[in-house]
Amino acid sequence: MSDGELAIPFRQRAGSALKDAFLQEALTIATTKFIDLRREAFEDFPEGEALRDRARAIKEATLQRLDHYLETLIANIERLGGHVHYAKTSEEARAIVVDIARRTGARMAVKSKSMATEEIHLNEALEHAGITPVETDLGEYIIQLAHERPSHIIAPAIHKTKGQVADLFGREFKRRVEADPEVLTKIARDELREKFLQADLGITGANFAVADTGTVVLVTNEGNGRMVTSLPRVHVALMGVEKVVPSLTDLMVFLAILAKSATGQKLSVYTTLVRGPRRAEELEGPDEFHLVLLDNGRIAQLGGPLREALSCLRCGACLNVCPVYQQIGGHAYGYTYPGPIGILLTAMLEGTRSVRDLAHASSLCGACADACPVRIDIPRMLIALRREVDEKKIAPWVERVAFTLLARLLTRPALYRLAVSAGRVLQRPFVREGTISRLPFFLNDWTRTRDLPAVAARTFQERWAAEQGRTP
Amino acid sequence: MTTKGEFLASIRAQMRTARDLFSASVAKRPEHPAAEADTIRRELAERWPAILERFRVEFERVGGVFYRVTSLDEVPAVVGRLAREREARGLVAWHAAALGADLAPALEARGLDVHEMPAGETAAAAERERLRAITAGADFGLTGVDLAVAETGTLILVSGAGRPRSTSLLPPCHIAVFDRTALVESLRQVGVLLEAWHRDGAPPATGAVINFITGPSRTADIELTLTRGVHGPKEVHAIFVEQGIRG
């Protein structure tokens, strides 16, 4: 995310998203459709619920012996003739990939969709080194031409209309382009086919890596993942350490639920299991295969409060069901990963300070936890994050003072009763029909978006005391 | 740069402070995958018609076109018809040994321009480049199938000698020929078979890539409008040979 965009406060970013009529319509259509497709997929799949539990248990069991599974993965990849690299930070990860690109002599790199490369801002680093990165997932290609960032984990360009895409292609290829998805897709196919055949370097993420076999797994619908791993001379896969799974048997459990959660498909069109560089007897495949293992804040969470978020499959299901995401879309969050899980991942990668506002961008309704294929308890961690934001004195001082006072009040009955009596008098000028919908000064921060119930004429405590007095 | 030792040490340091969220175990792998794979195959040998029917339904649901022919001799006619309808004739094919049959003469007799991929001797870079250009320009890619998964309508193809991955990727129309030996029912069974291949270490386990193909290439990235053939084939045809490919 560019610094310029983050200079705008979250509230303002969200505000502009709410005023964007097209975005509002696009978000409603997209999230509703994804929710329906996911529901239908699991309705047809009675074993789905049990498999979700299995998948979560596998993730947790893998984290419990993460060093062992990573060592196995590394040994198997090296045995196959691949190279493994280790990146503590995003700077280090960028330097590793740029270095490989330089040694390859690559002037262009084709990429299949990868959130990890977005996370480390790889494209900027490649461009800086004189290497042109080409995004090949259609959605990613569109937003790359528009110089934007993905607004959804699996549908990165849902915020764009076909008209906008046609204009974009028209400018890029200097001709009139019809605003028809079929035509636009054909143009992208022709453009990108050339690039696939020319590029020396292919860069991917990884949905999974199987320790036991040294296999990197890519899931795509378009086939770009296959192109990128088959045609260029060198293949680099960048992967967060938490993506390792122990065996092929484990992998099948995840494959059975991943696409259903993401797009409602039983499987995505292409699931590609890649094992090292080209074999001597094969015609295609890279001469060199590199795997970059990325930490970037993940390892610290093995024993940290966000450990559960390390089980995330990046399916996007929690985005679609989130009432906040449905309203503001992905860009308003301001970081690589949007939506409920995105807030946790942002805290993990960028530190708690970065989610000082975002920690509150949730109604805590729990829809995300229900939709999550591996049942990550996102609301629990959001509450913990809010507490941390408060304790570390990152929250605005007015908020901190207000909540500290409230906590004192609520834990001291005498003080509470006094405050109730005082409130009953002080609220008088602001009560309309039993609610307070406007408070003066900074207190309006609370009532601007919600009503406050007025203190009752007789509180429950007072009525209870009276009842007790009457009964023998 | 961080070394492997430093990297793993940082993980171990964190693991020492970490509390397990709950007691959990990984999926139970088959103890004797080869024996289990045999059991699966034996069981499928009796129920194959029902499983084939389920494959057809799922394969068509994801946009594939299914054919059922009695013998291998009928395959060239199906391909020939596709070629006539599309007014196209360039076809790249897996090597006869990988396909299980030599269909080239019969296909050529029907006017197709057939390029058979080499059997797998080490090819020089220039030769590989040439074959790639031919594949990229071809109208059809003809392949075999290692597994056909009924639950999802998926074709699983392993790369290897004489069976390049690009045959099912670069041409706009992919035609796959299979028989009941490839049929499996579920993803769970695929897991057992993959484990068996891996344990066995013989082809097809030696291939660099295993591709699961579930219908034609698709995208919905522009206004969620489903569009086919964005990078991979726009069409996928699967021809089932009742009497078996290898006779």
Short description:
Chain A has 472 residues and is of the alpha/beta class.
Which percent bin holds the helix content of chain B? 25-40%
Structural class of chain A: alpha/beta
Strand order of the largest sheet of chain A: 1-10-7-4-2-3
CATH H-level superfamily of chain B: NagB/RpiA/CoA transferase-like
CATH class identity of the largest domain in chain A: Alpha Beta
Placed side by side, the strands forming the largest sheet of chain B appear as: 1-12-7-4-2-3
The run of helices and strands of chain B is HHEHEHHEHEEEEEHEEEE
**CATH fold name of chain B, please?**
Rossmann fold
Summed up, the domain count of chain A is 3
Q: Indicate the overall shape of chain A.
A: globular
The top-level CATH class of chain B is: Alpha Beta
Identify the CATH homologous superfamily of the largest domain in chain A. Answer: NagB/RpiA/CoA transferase-like
* Strand-residue proportion of chain B: 15-25%
Assembly annotation: heterodimer
Low-pLDDT runs of chain A: none
Strand content of chain A: 5-15%
What can you tell me about this protein's structure?
The complex is a heterodimer of chains A (472) and B (247). Chain A has 472 residues and is α/β, with parallel strands linked by helices. Helix content of chain A is 51%, strand content 11%. Chain A contains 22 helices and 13 strands. In chain A, β5 and β6 form a beta hairpin. The longest helix of chain A is centred in the N-terminal third of the chain and has 23 residues. Chain B has one domain: Rossmann fold. In chain B, strands 1-12-7-4-2-3 form a six-stranded parallel beta sheet, with helices on both faces. In chain B, strands 8-5-6-9 form a four-stranded mixed beta sheet. In chain B, strands 10-11 form a two-stranded antiparallel ribbon. In chain B, α2 crosses α7. β9 of chain A pairs antiparallel with β9 of chain B, so a sheet runs across the interface.
Task: Note the topology.
The complex is a heterodimer of chains A (472) and B (247).
Chain A: H1 3-6, H2 10-19, H3 21-43, H4 48-64, H5 66-79, E1 83-87, H6 90-104, E2 108-111, H7 115-119, H8 122-128, E3 132-135, H9 138-145, H10 162-173, H11 181-198, E4 201-204, E5 208-210, E6 215-220, H12 224-230, E7 234-240, E8 244-245, H13 248-262, E9 270-274, E10 288-294, H14 317-321, H15 323-328, H16 339-350, H17 367-371, H18 378-391, H19 397-410, H20 413-426, E11 431-432, E12 435-436, H21 444-447, E13 452-453, H22 460-470
Parallel strand pairs in A: 1-10, 2-3, 2-4, 4-7, 5-8, 7-10
Antiparallel strand pairs in A: 5-6, 6-9, 11-12, 12-13
Helix pairs in contact in A: 4-13, 16-18
Chain B: H1 4-17, H2 33-61, E1 65-69, H3 75-86, E2 90-93, H4 96-99, H5 104-109, E3 113-116, H6 125-137, E4 140-143, E5 147-149, E6 154-158, E7 173-178, E8 183-184, H7 187-200, E9 209-213, E10 218-219, E11 227-228, E12 235-241
Helix pairs in contact in B: 2-7
